[in-house]
């Protein structure tokens, strides 16, 4: 059964977790590396498990694994053989499952909640390039070429025990269709697919968000559709658009609201967890049913989301 549909039969909404990579940086990790958060699978996997645990404790109903930038090609560039790369991808799922199972073993954590889900992150091709291409999607690759890139790691993640795929930060319709076309090869798996957007109407490559979401209605294994890694100021309009063109649950997990400066690789601005939580109330009122955070959000942001939505 579709795990998201099942959970939404029991609860009016699901709280997603927050950032992994920027949270690891906040805890002292140096991610100035093409592998980004996947680097910590090599160096300090126990810290990834702890981040997952902290998000569950903060109220997350879904954990997203640290496999966003974990690819065979990326690990090969570090001299790692395919078997080692596959084991690291499997570990990204195992760490989330271990944190989930430990959390759920405490009966006090079960009050008013269902056992959390683990979503295996499938980041875009641009994440492997590590040059910001996930924010424009101009890869120059066909759907078939993108399917060849994503297929092997999706196979590994599917075999590792995740509840579903989180196909996230997708910048262009070509890549979205490639991922959707791969899903029948994993008939036991469901997926959500979330785009990254440049404004209230267009995804990162400039295509219509409405048209992109509507075209994905044809793929029955897509359990939810939405947006992530996007400025919160655009989320209201994007939710309104999604409601017009899809019957699937809508998910949103934007960035904190701080601005990323590509040249300096730094963040500027402020966004309190309380402000983020208040925005979550509006997102839910507009129709989003899966709500969490992306870059620069923390367990405090997720705690605020859960607290406000359950008030």
Please work out how many helical segments DSSP would assign: 13
Name the CATH architecture. Alpha-Beta Barrel
Give the mean pLDDT.
95
Main sheet: strands, sense, barrel: 8 strands, parallel
Radius of gyration: 18 Å
Report, as a whole number of angstroms, the end-to-end distance. Answer: 30 Å
Derived from helix and strand composition plus strand pairing, the structural class reads alpha/beta
Overall form: globular
Write out the strand line-up for the largest beta sheet, numbering strands in chain order: 1-10-7-6-5-4-3-2
What proportion strand? 5-15%
GO molecular function, one term: methyltransferase activity
Binding site for Zn(2+): 229, 294-295
Keywords: Metal-binding, Methyltransferase, Transferase, Zinc
Protein name: Homocysteine S-methyltransferase
Structural description of this entry:
- There is one protein chain.
- The chain is α/β, with parallel strands linked by helices and 311 residues long.
- It has one domain: Homocysteine-binding-like domain (TIM Barrel, Alpha-Beta Barrel).
- The chain has helices spanning 3-10, 21-26, 39-43, 45-58, 72-76, 82-105, 125-129, 143-159, 173-182, 209-215, 235-245, 273-286, 299-309, and strands at residues 14-15, 62-64, 117-122, 164-170, 191-195, 222-228, 250-253, 259-261, 266-268, 288-291.
- Strand 6 (222-228), helix 11 and strand 7 (250-253) form a beta-alpha-beta unit.
- The longest helix has 24 residues, at 82-105.
- The two termini are 30 Å apart.
- InterPro entries: BHMT-like (IPR017226), HCY_dom (IPR003726), HCY_dom_sf (IPR036589), Hcy_S-methyltransferase (IPR051486).
- This is Homocysteine S-methyltransferase.
- Pfam families: S-methyl_trans.
């Amino acid at each position: 059964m579709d795990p998201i549909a099942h959970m939404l039969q029991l609860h009016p909404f699901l709280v997603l977790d927050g950032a992994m990579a920027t949270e690891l940086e906040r805890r002292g990790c140096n991610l100035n590396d093409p592998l980004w958060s996947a680097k910590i699978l090599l160096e300090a996997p126990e810290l990834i498990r702890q981040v997952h645990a902290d998000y569950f404790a903060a109220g997350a109903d879904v954990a997203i694994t640290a496999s966003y930038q974990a690819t065979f090609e990326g690990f090969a560039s570090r001299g790692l053989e395919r078997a080692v790369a596959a084991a690291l991808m499997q570990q990204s799922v195992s760490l989330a499952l271990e944190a989930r199972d430990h959390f759920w073993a405490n009966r006090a954590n079960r009050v008013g909640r269902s056992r959390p889900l683990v979503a295996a992150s499938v980041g875009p091709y641009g994440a492997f390039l590590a040059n910001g291409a996930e924010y424009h999607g101009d890869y120059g690759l066909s759907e078939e070429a993108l399917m060849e890139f994503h297929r092997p790691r999706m196979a590994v993640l599917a075999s590792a025990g995740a509840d579903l795929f989180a196909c996230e930060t997708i910048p262009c319709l070509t890549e979205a269709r490639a991922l959707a076309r791969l899903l029948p090869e994993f008939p036991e798996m469901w997926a959500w697919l979330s785009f990254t957007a440049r404004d209230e109407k267009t995804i990162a490559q400039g295509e219509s968000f409405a048209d992109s979401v509507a075209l994905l209605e044809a793929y029955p294994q897509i359990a939810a559709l939405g947006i992530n890694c996007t400025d919160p100021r655009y989320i209201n309009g994007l939710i309104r658009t999604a409601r017009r063109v899809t019957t699937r649950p809508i998910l949103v997990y934007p960035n904190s609201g701080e601005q990323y400066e590509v040249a300096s690789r730094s963040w500027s601005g402020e966004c309190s967890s309380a402000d983020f939580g208040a925005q979550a109330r509006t997102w839910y009122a507009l129709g989003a049913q899966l709500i969490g955070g992306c870059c620069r959000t923390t367990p405090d942001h997720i705690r605020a989301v859960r607290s406000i939505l359950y008030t």
